[in-house]
Amino acid sequence: MSLKAQLAEGDDAEMQKFVKSLPWRDILASELTLIPCAISIIAAMRDEDSFFHSYLQTIPTEYTNAMANLEDDDSPSLTGSPLTADKVISKRRILRQIHQQLAPSLPLRELSWASAVVSSRAFSRRRPSPVNPDRIDRIGPIAAVDSSRFLPLIDITNHGGKTFANADVRHRIEDKAAPAYDPHSTSLISTRGIKKGEEILIDYGGGRSISNERLLMDYGFIIPDSAGDTARLRFNEDLIPALQTVDDDRRGMAEVSEGDLMGIRKLAQCIIMEQKSPILFDASGKPSLPTMVLTLVLSCRGVEDVARIIAPVRELKSQQGSDDVIIDPHEYPDLLLKIYSASAPEHQELAFRVLRQAASLALQLVSTEQPEVAEGGVTFEDVARDYCRERRHILQRAALLGPGT
């Protein structure tokens, strides 16, 4: 039985009532769906009859992820990465608000510890373990379908990434007719031969690239020179000032019709809405396709650039027979590629100039100092400084890139 199911089935009415009353809208907006599992860990720690009680006594008391210290909003080491700092502030504030609803018997440090444990050690299954329908109301429907799973022993496996992982955490498909078959079980399964004494490693990204920002936030470490790393910039504070440096190149926009200007604005809004981070660079400093196309849209020099940019959109409108384009998520990357391919080489160079300037402006916020690790061991702030150092390297590459690189 999972921790969540155990809480719903158990007799801890105080914890059940608390989980049900949580501000779920804020929790979902802040991506803090770990809360039910964290509360369940606290309940299991207090219940000596809990299946998880003995194992939880062996869990470390100190962590270095973003949830490890809820007492402070500010993270001085993240000054050079405002978007990441905003994430940390948001998560810590929501968790403190949740703590204020708790009984005085639960210290903030205990909630902080449980949240850090789940963030760094729990897994997520697409098919969560069942909660008795008669018990769902005890913790509420959202908590009841939460897929966070705390898996003793499996949770100690370290991250090897796609390159070094030799095992996977998943449901083992067995004979469904077997008496002992459990559709909700989870196993640690080797993906290749493992030698005696070799460390078992899994891929925290599940086969997909995982950024240092996520490693910092959830797990409390980063990977230097990671090929899967990214750097995000702010739209208003980084890209817009960079666009203003090419105003002289865009004087021809005064001749663009109001209808085409409206089309350009709608396209920019569409790209911004589709992307969680519209300004994104990969580890090599190369802008993502949405970032490049958005910059092209916003840096049009005049009538010819606008005509090239909106031609693929008009083609899609014609195919759909509608004035309002409905972009299928599967067709979205193809549309972006068509827009980029339709743009003039000189326009592409201008867009790269804007992005180089945006990266240069962002670099001014990133400190080059490397403070020594404070006595008492590594903290979140220490790892955050390492994260900002890696981010600085990406931005330095982005500040040098052009169309041919």
Number of self-contained structural domains? 3
Major sheet size, sense and barrel closure: 2 strands, antiparallel
Q: β content, as a range?
A: 5-15%
Radius of gyration in whole Å, from Cα? Answer: 25 Å
Count of separate DSSP helical elements? 18
Q: Which percent bin holds the helix content?
A: 40-55%
Structural class: mainly alpha
Mean pLDDT over all positions: 85
Low-confidence stretches: none
Strand order of the largest sheet: 1-2
Distance between the termini: 53 Å
Annotation, overall tally of beta strands: 8
N-to-C SSE string, H for helix and E for strand: HHHHHHHEHHEEHEEEHEHHEHHHHH
Question: What is the approximate shape?
Answer: elongated
GO molecular function, one term: protein-lysine N-methyltransferase activity
Protein name: SET domain-containing protein
Organism: Proboscia inermis
Describe this protein's structure:
With 405 residues, the protein is mainly alpha-helical. The protein has three domains: 3-151, no CATH class; 157-219, no CATH class; 230-398, no CATH class. 48% of the residues lie in helices and 5% in strands. It has 18 helices and eight strands. It has helices at 3-9, 13-20, 24-29, 35-46, 53-56, 82-100, 108-121, 136-139, 141-144, 161-164, 212-219, 235-244, 258-274, 289-298, 303-320, 332-342, 345-363, 380-398; strands at 123-124, 148-149, 158-159, 167-170, 187-190, 201-202, 230-232, 280-282. Strands 1-2 form a two-stranded antiparallel sheet. Strands 3-6 form a two-stranded parallel sheet. Helix 15 packs antiparallel against helix 16 (332-342). The chain is elongated, with a radius of gyration of 25 Å.
